Structure formats: structure tokens, C-alpha cells
Amino acid sequence: MIKEAETLRKESFYRKYIRPIITHKVFSLVIILLALVVLFSIWSAAQGKQFFKASTLRNILNSIVLTSFLTIGAGMLLIAGDMDLSQAAVGAFGGIVLAASIVYWKLPWFVGIIICLLLCGVLGAINAIMVTRYRFPSFIATLAMMSMAKGLMYIFSTIGKGSDVASNIAVNNPYLNFIGKGTIGPVPFGIIVMLVFFLVYGILLTKTKIGLKIMLMGGNKAAANLAGINSKKILFALFVNASVLAGVAGIFSTGRLGQGSLLALQTNQFSGLTAAILGGISFGGGSGGMGGAFVGLLILNTFQIGMGVVGVNPYWVNVFSGVILLIALATDFISRRRLRSV
Amino acid sequence: MQKRKIISRILRNKSTPLIVILIIMCIITMIVSSGVLKGEPLSAMFTRGFLSGGNLIGIFNKLVIQAFMMCGIVLLLIGGNIDLSVAGQAGLTAMVFAWLCQKTSLHWIIIFLICVVMGAILGLLNTLLVNRLKFPSFIATIGMSSVYAGLCNIMTKGDNIQISTAKHGSFVTMGRANIGGWLPVLFLVAVIVLIAYQFILSRTTFGRSLYMCGGNSTAARLSGLKPDRILRFLFLNNSILAAIGGLLWVSQYQLASPTAITSSGMDFEVISASVLGGVAFHGGSGSIGGAFVALMVLNVFENMLHVMNVQDYYIVFATGAILVIALGIDYINAERRRKALLVASISGASETK
Fold first, then answer.
1. Across the interface, which of A130, A166, A318 has its CB nearest the CB of B150?
2. Which chain A residues contact residue B129 at CB under 8 A?
3. Residue A332 — very low, low, confident or very high, per pLDDT cuts 50/70/90?
4. What is the mean pLDDT of chain A?
């Protein structure tokens, strides 16, 4: 009798605490992450190098800062069932605007940041108008915006310069240097900002009414509209949000490189989107969260940094990041099949 | 009466505005780029600038690989799927082809066939991912494209591979052959392929069943079609066409480059042209003819800015802007049609009363 009660208690303990963790989407991602860490630790130890140390962790976190802002924006949009391909280009545009406003237009740094975010917001609003008001397919509309933002970036890098040859703009501003390279204690400033953003957006998504509405919209747009949710308004806000966050990424990029670069964020074209999807935000919308997106980013970059530590030809990184994406999709597939069989 | 019907049909056709834009653009470019406005004789219009042989061959050459990609992608889009790895596949097969040409002494036709088979295998890989494992095609093929781009670079550590003219002379002549110094033969081949696919789409049972699969795959299955099998065929077809397009690219430029095809954004241009040309992004409608007209508009527009010596960064901006403008025209047309339908239905309802 007592034994039965004991097993029952154990069972309910399992049901209550352990099963939700094991069946949670993020859990399988964490397992992949740990597996990667173990793999690289052994691999680098075999070569006589050390992977598992504090500086590596800091490198990994540091390398995801730029992408993380893109991921948050892309993730929120994906959850609502839409996407934005123009983020990286808009971010690079923002970085150039910031640099140009400080160097060429002789404005104080905070005004530069405000102008940068405003202009990025305007581009986002154009995206939003195209998609919500005129019902252009978002794939094409944002692709067009990508090309326009790139063009605008070149054009803005020549305004007030005197010549009309587009080039990188070197900035040496103490505040921007702090944003890009400064540390608070041992922790770089960028990492703190990134974590705060993840936390805020995570809370926004799970604990507030707006978050619930976004989830509902992504799950079933028609139902959301019938339930009285103004999905156009929310989508508008999300598009602007994605572009402004891209602008934030641009600011950090300018701060880090010490210049407004014409090639900034170019390698991040798809990585924001990829990380969001890796983190369990499904492509059709309606599911996923910021925790998963964060772990997804960690996986992508642990992989890249790890490959660097063990000294693999960088061309292979490209191949494996594709493979990792497919593996993540596969875990998603397996968990969905398990769900179906239950 | 008959005549009026034809005219109204032409006017109502979705690609008519695009064709008009294309013609206007060609004429403007022809006049401005030839320097007639600056006092050149009128005959210069046909020999200099836009209509000069070299420029036209450049435009047509780029259209060949894109036309091959387009046939595959339009069919896939109509069937409700997408493949973003076409450029990667084309690039990889091109690299493998050039590599085999360099290392082995086989005749190029045999290598060509080997590479087409390789393309088919890549297509099977895609169907495995999308059909069997049910990955969303958009993201799975982005992953694959990254894999292909990486493999291309690994093969030669980033170097180009030249095709030796001495060893594979006929292959190189095939790419260079042209009629009258301005029309490449391969472009004619591409046009024949486009027409064949348009015929399949609009005149055969298989073509019509594609539309049904894309529009409503459940209904298609219930009415006895096999969407899975059709999807497999579409991916195969798409990859084989991409492979052939890549190989023809090699014959045009006599070299295979690990980055020229994969990172040129060709696939995006093809997809946006398809959507501009009336192919629904989520499947169920569209035609190859309209898509190809849109592709020509995009290419001619870019070329127009180049021959007019516009600075590169305005061109980048303008290529985005023309997409938006074209989408806007499409929107206006759709609104007008919707209103006309509304008016017709209201008047019809009042008549029955």
C-alpha cells in the first residue's frame, strides 16, 4: 500500500516536473548544445588545445550579439506568421547612417543613434505598409526592400562627404567605442544589452496580452481576426520592430568595427532567420519563444567558434551550418512524430 | 465582335502591362545609350549601346541559366513549394563538371550526362527532406544551399576552374555560337524549353493537376491525385533543370566559379520575377510565359541603367524600387478587377429582383 503510494508520488513528481522539461522543445536543443561542447572539448584536447574555458564562452556570447537582435525581430515576425528578408541590409544601412551623422554631419552621438533608429523604423514601416495595406507577398516585398536599403546605404555614405564614391566611414567616438567594445566589470556591454533584450521580449511574448495575440495570429489568422484582434496593426508594429532591432544591430556593428562598414552584417543575411527557426519557432507561425531562439543562436555560434578553435578550414563551416540546420529540423520532426503517436 | 474580344482579352491579360513596360524600356534605352540625342546619326541606334551585339549577348547569356531555373521553380511554386537551393545546385554541378573535364579524359557529353544524373540525385535529396521528413521546404532548402555553397568552395579552395578550349572545343563553341552576332543559340534552346514547359502546364492533364495540388492539396488527394508523387517529380525536374542551366553557364564563360552562380542572387531574381509575372507565392496559379516576361523586364531594366552609366548604388536601389512599382501595378489591377466583379454581381443581383 505504502509502496504503491510511493510509486504514485514518484510518478506524479515525474509528470509534474521532469516530463515537461524533457518534452520541452528547448530541452532537445540544450542537449545538442551540450553534445557540441563535449565534442569540441574532446576534439581540441586531442590537438592539445583547450576549448572549455571562460574566454571561449565570452567569445561565443560576443559573436552572437549582432545576430541576436536580428533573431529577436525575425523571431517575433515568424511567430506572427510572416518574415522579413531585409533585416541585414536595413541594419547595415543604420550603421552607415550613424557613422555618417557623426563624421560628416557633425552631430552628437545620441542624435546619430536616434536618427539611425528612426530611419530604420521608416524602412520597416514601408515594409509593413507594403505587406499589410497592399498585401504584397512579404517574401518579395522585403526582398525589394533589401535591395533598396542597400542602395540607400551607398547613397547615405556619400551625403555630406564631398565626393560621390561610396566607402566605409571610420568613426572614433568614445561613446560608440564603449557600446561596441566596452565592458561592465568583466562582461562586455553588448552581451548585457542582448540578454536584457531577450528577457524583455521573452516576457512580452509569454506574459502579456500582446504576446498572446501575436501567438494567436500566427496560429490561425482568420480565427484571430474573428476574435477581434487587429492583426494588421500588430503586424505593422512587428515589421517596424524588426527593422528598429536591425538598426540596433547596425549600431553595435559600427561601434565594434570602429567604422560604418558597407559590408556590415552581410554574413548575417539568413542567420537571424535560421537561429529563430533552429530555436523552435516554426515557419508557419504560432509557436516558439525567445529562450529557444537564444539557445539556437548559441548552437550556431558554438559550432562556428569551435570549428575555429580546432582549426578546420573555414569553408567547411558553411557546409556544417547547413547540416546543423537540417539536424535541428530533424529533431523537430522526431518530436512532432512522438507527439502524434501519443 | 470577334476582334473586340481578342483586344479585350489582350488588355485583360496579366502580363500586358509588363510587356508594355518592357517595350518602352527597350526603346528608351536604345535611344539614350546610342548617343543619338548627342548628335550621332540615327543608324547608331542599332549598332551602339543597348542594341550592340556584345550587350545583347550579355543579356541573353544571363537569361539562359535563369530561364532553365525558372522552368523548375515556377512549376514548384505552382505546386505550393519552393527551392532556394537552385543556385547552389547549379553552382555545384558546374564545379563538378569543370573538375571532371580537367581531371579525366572522358568526352564532355559523358561528363555532361554524369552531372545531370548528379543533379537528379540532389533533387532526390530535396524530396527526401521535404516529402519524407516533412521539413518546410523554404528553410530546408536554405540549409541545403549553404551546404552546396560550402562544398563549391572546398572543391578548389575558392579558385576558378578553366575549361581548356583545346580539349573540349565543341563544348566551348556551343556556348559561344550565335546567330548574326547578337542572338546566342543557347538562348533559342532556352526559349524552346520554356515553350515546352508552358505547353505542359496549360495543355496537359499533368499540368492542370499541378494547379490543383498547389491550390488545395487535400482536395487534390481526395480527387485521386498523388501530391507526394507529383512533388517528387517537381523537385527532380527542378534540380535537373538547374544542373543543365549551370552546365550551360560553364559553356558560355569557359570556366566554373565557386561563387559566381551561388552568390549572385540569381535564384532570388528568378523567384521575384515569377511572382511579378503572376505566379502565386503559395501555389495554385501562374504561368511560365508571364514569369519570363517579368524576368526580361528585370534584366533589361538593370542593363538599361548600366548602359546609361548610372552609378552602381543607384542601380541597386532601383532594382528594389522597380519590384515595388511592379507589385503596385499588380495591386491596382487586382483592385480594379475586384471592383468590376463586385459591380457586376450587384447589378446582376438587382436584375434578378
1. A318
2. 326, 329
3. low
4. 85
Closest CA to A104 of A163, A148, A152: A163
For residues B119 and A50, which has the higher predicted lDDT (pLDDT)? B119
Q: Flag whether residue A323 sits within 8 Å of chain B, measured between CB atoms.
A: yes
The interface pTM score, or ipTM, of the predicted complex is 0.79
The grid coordinates of residue A78 equal 515568424
Count CB-CB contacts under 10 A for residue A230: 12
Give strand ranges (E) for chain A. Answer: 169-170, 183-184, 187-188, 259-260
Alpha-carbon gap: A303 to the closest alpha carbon of chain B (Å)? 15
| Partner residues linked to B161 by β-bridges | B256
Inter-chain CB proximity A315 and B145 less than 8 Å: no
Q: Which of A159, A168, A319 would best serve as a mutation to test chain B binding (most B beta carbons within 10 A)?
A: A319
N- to C-terminal Cα distance for chain B? Answer: 30
Q: Who wins on pLDDT, B333 or B87?
A: B87
B280-297: burial string, b at 16+ Cβ within 10 Å, e else: bbebbebbbbbbbbbbbb
d(CA B249, CA A311): 35
pLDDT value for B1: 57
Burial of A196 (0-12, 13-18, 19+ CB in 10 A): exposed
- Find, in chain A, the residue whose alpha carbon is nearest to that of B137: A283
Mean pLDDT for chain B?
Answer: 86
Asked if B323's CB is within 8 angstroms of A143's CB, the reply is yes
Q: Long-range pairs for A165-168 at CB < 8 Å and ≥24 separation? A: A166/A262, A166/B313, A167/A262, A168/A259, A168/A260, A168/A261, A168/A262
Angle, CA of A240, A244 and A245, to the nearest 5° = 115
Per the CB < 8 Å rule, is B313 touching A134? no
Over residues A43-53, the pLDDT tens digits come to 888 888 777 78
pLDDT surpasses 60 at A9: yes
- The shortest CB-CB distance from A155 to any of B272, B317, B320 is to B317
What is the maximum alpha-carbon separation in chain B? 81
- Give the type of residue at B77: L
Question: Dihedral (C-alpha) A276, A281, A283, A286: value to the nearest 10 degrees?
Answer: -140
What residue type is assigned to position B2 of the chain?
Q
Query: Nearest to residue A224, comparing CAs of A232, A136, A74?
Result: A232
- Minimal Cα distance from A167: which residue of B? B313
Predicted confidence at residue A341, as pLDDT, reads: 62
- Global pTM reads 0.84
Among the partner-chain residues B135, B149, B276, the one whose CB lies closest to the CB of A329 is B135
Q: Is B138 close to A283, i.e. CB distance below 8 A?
A: yes
The answer for B 93-152 residues in CB contact with A (under 8 A) is: 129, 133-136, 138-140, 142-151
The pLDDT assigned to A335 comes to 67
B188 at A interface, C-beta within 8 A:
no
Cβ-contact A325, A274 below 8 angstroms? yes
Which residue of chain B is at minimal alpha-carbon distance from A337?
Answer: B133
Which residues 289-348 of chain B have a CB within 8 Å of chain A? 311-321, 323-324, 327-328, 331
Looking at residue A127, its pLDDT comes to 93
Predicted pLDDT at B352: 60
What residues contact B24, with CB distance under 8 A and at least 6 apart?
A: none
**Confidence bin at A254 (pLDDT 50/70/90):** very high
| pLDDT of residue A342 exceeding 60 | no
